[in-house]
Amino acid sequence: MSDDTIRLVTIGRILRRRWRLLAILAVVGALVGYGTSLLVPPRYTASASVLLPGQWEERELLTQAEIATSSVVVDRVAATLRWTGVSGSELRDRVSAKAADGNIIKISGTADTPERAQRLSDRVAEQFVTFAAQITGDGDGTDPDAAAGPETLRQKVMQTNRRITELANAADPGQTVESVQARTELAKLRAALQDAVKKLEQAESATEKAGMLVMGPAARPAGEAPPTRTQLIVGGALLFFLLSVIGHLAAARGNRRLHTEGEIAAALGSALLGTVDVPGERPAHGPKGRGARAWIRRLLGVDTRWETPAPQTSGDEASRRIRYRRVCARLRDQLPPPRRLLVVVPDGDEIARRAAGQLVAEAESDPSPSSSSRGDPVLRVAEVSVSHPMVPDRDTESGALVVLSAGSWTAQELAGIAEACADGRHEVVGIIVAGTVRARPTRPAGHPPDNATPALAVRGHATGGSV
């Protein structure tokens, strides 16, 4: 697979050709999610709302939300609930608060039962209101005048108003010292009155803000808090499914198999004689495809490669045989008599094996008028193991012809086959690359039934005997 951007067609190809494996991995992920749900105890969350009267800025609401989950409030809640083995530090992880619209602080508590979750949220709301009242109440001692209360301030304002009225009536409108002093005293009293009015407004505002109200008890939760068992099961299945798809893409990115004819020719150190087509069909599972491991691979659908593109529709049988005849003609023109070649096929390359059999059949029955039976190349097929390549020693052959399919082997594997040919004193005279195509339905008035002969020739020459 190249470094091009991954397209949706690649994902679709994975889904079409690996759907069994993806389905099984998704089921495994669902089982893992179910097992995780058994290990993680269920959690329930209840919420209580606290109303903050008056005008509040956004930052003030955020501060109140932080106070609701502070250690002072949570420790008081833990002391009130007296749950066995549950401390204030553990409750802090189960309590949360956030500012909602309408000057409302929403307090949520999480516990292992719905009843405990309801009690926890209610207690936190109550302790939060109590603690907020203590902060703005009499116990802080920050301002004695403000602590006197709104009623005292109102009385002071009334007294000041009366004193101003008395001084205004007794004041001399002249410019005497007494009249100036009276007017100065009057101005001081008016300033004190204004100061008292401001303190009264601040006290009323503080009283309004301190008057927080719990908006009823928390509703008992009817279902589990996320992640629920269903969410864990679905999440596990989705996670395994995505990981398997990503694994396929990563494996394709790291694939070092050669796909182009030029790369294959360079790895084998020889020239490309041509490309041939093989009708695509499901490979028959011979003795090497038996056993539990092979059965599992077939069940999962991993016995065939997914990254290869879908075969293109080819012409009829005659057009495919023309390619084989052209290869035989190139061999006749290139090699001097006797034209005996060893056809090397990598073991496990079913496409190349079928192409080699068809090539042998065409070399035996080439009907071209310009060739004679003595001029046709004589081919002998030998399957070579890629892991431990071993080519038969040279007998009467003029060289070796390598037949393989594109995208199946790495450069190192092909170099090993070339070295094995050199060890057997075979010169690689050419390379043939085979590919799969979709065969069209055979017409009633098609070619003679001898088209079935190459299939028999494949099996006959695959044993390695001379032709």
Structure description:
- The protein is elongated, with a radius of gyration of 46 Å.
- The strands form 2 sheets. Strands 5, 6, 7, 8, 9 and 10 form a 6-stranded parallel sheet that branches.
- It has helices spanning 8-17, 19-39, 58-68, 71-81, 88-92, 114-136, 144-147, 150-170, 177-210, 229-253, 261-268, 292-300, 317-334, 350-364, 411-423, 453-461, and strands at 44-51, 95-100, 104-111, 213-214, 272-279, 312-313, 340-346, 378-384, 399-405, 428-438.
- It folds into 3 domains: 8-40 and 227-253, no CATH class; 144-211, no CATH class; 261-461, no CATH class.
- The chain has 467 residues and is an alpha/beta fold.
- Strand 9, helix 15 (411-423) and strand 10 form a beta-alpha-beta unit.
- Helix 2 packs across helix 10, helix 8 runs antiparallel to helix 9 and helix 14 (350-364) packs across helix 16 (453-461).
- This is Polysaccharide biosynthesis protein.
The biggest beta sheet is recorded as: 6 strands, parallel
Tally of helical runs: 16
* Run of helices and strands: HHEHHHEEHHHHEHHEHEHEHEEHEH
Radius of gyration: 46 Å
Task: Kindly give the count of domains.
Answer: 3
Task: Determine the N-to-C terminus distance.
Answer: 39 Å
Structural class: alpha/beta
Share of helix, binned: 40-55%
Q: Which overall shape is indicated by the principal axes computed on the Cα atoms?
A: elongated
